[in-house]
Every structure is written in C-alpha cells, then in structure tokens.
Amino acid sequence: MLEFWYSDQCSRQIKLMVCIVTCVMIYLCSTVQQLSPLFTGISITIGMGLHGLRALNLKIAADHPYKKGFAILIFAMPLITLIILISALPTQHKIVLVMQAIGFAAIGLFILSTFPNRRFDKNEER
Known about the structure:
Blueprint: H1 2-6, H2 12-30, H3 37-59, H4 67-88, H5 94-114
C-alpha cells in the first residue's frame, strides 16, 4: 500500500481524496467520542515515523545485508506501536477511538509524504 502511495501512479488528486475521506472519517468518529490530544499526538507521530523509516530504507543500498531486515522493521515498528497505543485506549467506544487513532496516523504519514512533492513556481504572476 505504501509503495502505491509513494509511486507516480498515485496522483495528487487521489492523495487529496484519500486525505479528505480520512478527515471525514475522523470527524464522524469524533462525534461519538473524541480521541484525547495525547493519543492524537502519538498517532500522528507514528505516521510521521513511518515516513521517516521509509526514507531511511530508501537510503540503504539494495545489496546491503541489512536491507531485508530493515524492510521488516518498517512494517513491524509502526504496527507494534499502534497496537500498544490501541491497548492503552479507554474501553468505552474503543472501535471509534481505534479508527481515529489509525486515521491520525495516516494523516501524519500524509503530511510528510506530500510535502517533498510540492511545486512552487517562483515566476508565477499573482
């Protein structure tokens, strides 16, 4: 899934639609019960960490002996931290809180993954 998100096949319009749908899902879930600011910050940090781990993975040479292990680490670390976060959530309306936590982790990933692809035209007339 991440490979598609970072590929050229995933256009800016697709990324925008996914971001909007994610924000709407978070909003609808928050009408039932809001995720606390601490858990929100941790979730966003998990998403940003996932982007950081992927960026580090791209810097490792393909023939490096640790390349496969690092790929496993990219999958396992965010998943483990998200599972730990989910286990710490309150039990009332847990499904709604889990959806918000996953959504905020996705938002953290979206923020960092789309920023390097910004194009600013300095010669553009306003």
